[in-house]
Amino acid sequence: MGEAMDIVLRRMPELGCSPTIVTYGTVLKGLCANKRSQEALKLLQMMVDDGGSCALNLVSYNTVIDGLFK
């Protein structure tokens, strides 16, 4: 999963691609499924801090909340 996060957060922008909410959602779900919900929470915060280039949605929040309680 660390490699996937590296691709989303570093490589995609280097290649001229912007991660979408679906891209971030996939990484969030993968982190939570692998019991790494604290990292998912940090990624969610990074998305908020980014200032809106990728708007969060209810699914993003629910994914992390669900992961925190598993």
From TrEMBL:
Q: Which residues form the signal peptide?
A: none
Q: Name one Pfam family in it.
A: PPR_2
| Keyword Repeat attributed | yes
Keywords assigned: Repeat, Transit peptide
The segments carrying the PPR repeats are 20-54
Family indicated by similarity: Belongs to the PPR family. P subfamily.
Which protein, by its recorded name, is this? Pentatricopeptide repeat-containing protein
